TrEMBL record:
Lineage summary: Bacteria, Pseudomonadati, Bacteroidota, Chitinophagia, Chitinophagales
Its EC number(s): 3.2.2.21
A GO cellular-component term linked to this record: protein-DNA complex
GO molecular function per UniProt: alkylated DNA binding; DNA-3-methyladenine glycosylase activity; DNA-7-methylguanine glycosylase activity
Keyword DNA damage: yes
Species annotation: Niastella caeni
Family per similarity comment: Belongs to the alkylbase DNA glycosidase AlkA family.
Catalytic activity as recorded in UniProt: Hydrolysis of alkylated DNA, releasing 3-methyladenine, 3-methylguanine, 7-methylguanine and 7-methyladenine
Transmembrane segments: none
UniProt protein name: DNA-3-methyladenine glycosylase II
Length: 201
């Protein structure tokens, strides 16, 4: 049971007591999950929801196929509030799905690092985005999002870390997170809940 393991860390134990248990779910449609993730980048949760709904409305409220996304004119995507960059990134994801494949069965056979390497080939998809996908779409239990600002801020506050020396800061974060393995995804979820800044799914 992951809560038993994570409770060895007193700080996380307190968060478990406050928030109860979390569960991870797996998403079948990885392509649309990744598109939704790109849509929500650098936006507040509220605005991201509005844009995502507008995006679905282009396809009669349903999740579009990669073919439908590619067939959508860039100006149509821009009209719902996407920047030029996001418009091309979303279409890059759809194109990659058709050309290389993004089936969840295929991704489940890969290790976390292999999935990161595979999907960051897509222009507009960075490591952080794939880490979120590993956690919230593929249900991987041992992902540590070291570059996530919410995680960093929570760890600075809870573990009295100092980010002045970036290299040392990362090493300290990794050292602390090793104790959470093989359940680092859940530890991240508790840290986000502490700051109440869970990333938009």
């Amino acid at each position: 049971m992951y809560t038993l393991h994570l409770s060895k860390d007193k700080k996380i134990k307190k968060l478990i007591e406050q928030n109860g248990e979390f569960t991870l779910t797996k998403q079948k449609n990885v392509c649309t999950w990744l598109c939704a993730s790109i849509l929500s980048q650098q936006l507040s949760t509220k605005v991201a929801k509005v844009i995502h709904q507008r995006f679905l409305n282009l396809y009669e409220g349903k999740e579009p196929t990669p073919e439908q996304i590619i067939a959508t004119a860039p100006e149509t995507l821009r009209a719902i509030g996407l920047s030029n960059a996001k418009t091309s990134y979303v279409q890059n994801v759809a194109r990659f799905t058709l050309e290389q494949g993004m089936d969840h069965r295929k991704l489940h056979k890969m290790s976390d690092e292999e999935v990161i390497e595979y999907l960051t080939q897509i222009k507009g998809v960075g490591r952080w985005t794939v880490e979120m996908l590993l956690m919230f779409a593929l249900g991987r239990e041992d992902v540590f999002a070291i570059d996530d600002l919410g995680i960093q801020n929570a760890m600075i506050a809870l573990y009295k870390l100092d980010r002045t020396d970036k290299k040392q800061f990362r090493e300290e974060m990794l050292r602390i997170s090793k104790k959470w393995s093989p359940y680092r995804t859940y530890a991240c979820m508790y840290l986000w809940r502490w700051k109440d800044n869970i990333p938009v799914k």
